[in-house]
Each structure stands twice: as structure tokens, then as C-alpha cells.
Write a structure and sequence with these properties.
3 strands; elongated; about 45% helix; about 120 residues; GMP Synthetase, Chain A, domain 3; single chain; 2 domains; three-stranded mixed sheet; alpha+beta; about 15% strand; 7 helices
Length: about 120
């Protein structure tokens, strides 16, 4: 459950709170421990019912009953070099076809091809 919560954290609580808090642990009683930026802790405390509601709505059940806030700074992540953020196809849509050839389902293969070409066209 924690893996899914961490993976989808920003989608669950929104980008504003996704960048200000991070889930650390969820105990059996439904208490979710969040690491929060000190500057955001007070507002997050006031919005706790909303966050609990969003989390429970996302999982479709009463998973979280209460939040425990731990104020701490977040680690600074190193910036990736520009080459690391480039698309694996490097702007060339022709390399998509060999990568998609192993997909048996024709509808899925076509959808992934459209997605790949859209990403390449957008410069991703």
C-alpha cells in the first residue's frame, strides 16, 4: 500500500502538497506519518481532513484515519544532465516500430505507437 501511495502521491494530494509533504509510514491504526517542510506544516495541519479524504477516496476505502506531521527539510535532488532527460528515441520516430513489434495486441501496439509519435513530435 505504501509503494502505491508514494508512487502516486502528487496525483493523490495534488502538486502543491505533493511537493510539501512526503508519506513515510502508515501504521495499522490508519495513522499516516508525513514528512513536511516546516513552512508548510501549519497549513497542512489545517488541511489534514482534506488530505485524508483525498487519500481515502483514491484507495476507495478508509485507509487513513489521522496524519502525524514530522517537520524536516527535504533532501535536494541532483539535477539530471540534459542528455538524461531526452527521449529514448532522440527525436526519431522510426525507432519506435522495432520496439513495438513485440507487442501482440494490435490495438495496444497502435495506441503505444500514437503515444510514442506524439511524444517525439512534442520534443520529449
Amino acid at each position: 500500500m505504501m509503494v502505491r501511495l508514494k508512487t502516486d502521491w502528487s496525483a493523490i494530494v495534488g502538486p502543491e502538497w505533493g511537493g510539501a509533504a512526503w508519506p513515510l509510514a502508515l501504521d495499522r491504526d490508519g495513522v499516516l506519518k508525513l514528512r513536511t517542510r516546516p513552512a508548510a506544516a501549519l497549513e497542512l495541519q489545517h488541511r489534514a481532513p482534506l488530505l485524508i479524504e483525498r487519500i481515502n477516496l483514491y484507495f476507495g476505502r478508509a485507509l487513513v484515519t489521522r496524519l502525524t506531521l514530522i517537520q524536516a527539510t527535504f533532501p535536494v535532488l541532483p539535477e539530471l544532465p540534459a542528455s538524461a532527460t531526452r527521449s529514448p528515441v532522440n527525436g526519431d520516430a522510426t525507432v519506435l516500430d522495432p520496439r513495438l513489434s513485440g507487442i501482440a495486441d494490435p490495438e495496444l501496439r497502435a495506441a503505444l505507437g500514437r503515444l510514442g509519435r506524439a511524444i517525439v513530435a512534442a520534443g520529449g
